[in-house]
Amino acid sequence: MATISKFKLEINNDWCKGCGICVAFCPKNVLSINDGKVFIQNVNNCIGCGQCELRCPDYAIFLGGKNNE
């Protein structure tokens, strides 16, 4: 699990197939593909739009509420 400054973002690398759909839909370039799996590269850029979670066909990404909840 990786935690970002404003929101809680979790990636289940066991479920990720590295398709890159989440990377393509992220408007702030928060995610990238590294060694065939999604990787959080710019943690502070996340705006919590949820496009990564919505578009992931493998349900490998979960965007939770604010980090202090």
TrEMBL record:
Protein EC: 1.2.7.3
Classification via Pfam families: Fer4_10
Segments forming domain 4Fe-4S ferredoxin-type: 7-36, 37-66
SUPFAM superfamilies: 4Fe-4S ferredoxins
InterPro entries given in the database record: 4Fe4S_Fe-S-bd (IPR017896), 4Fe4S_Fe_S_CS (IPR017900), Fe-S_Ferredoxin (IPR050572)
Uppermost EC category: oxidoreductase
Listed PROSITE patterns: 4FE4S_FER_1, 4FE4S_FER_2
Superkingdom as given in the UniProt entry: Bacteria
Keywords for the protein's UniProt record, in alphabetical order: 4Fe-4S, Iron, Iron-sulfur, Metal-binding, Oxidoreductase
Protein name: 2-oxoglutarate oxidoreductase, delta subunit, putative
A molecular function GO annotation: 2-oxoglutarate synthase activity
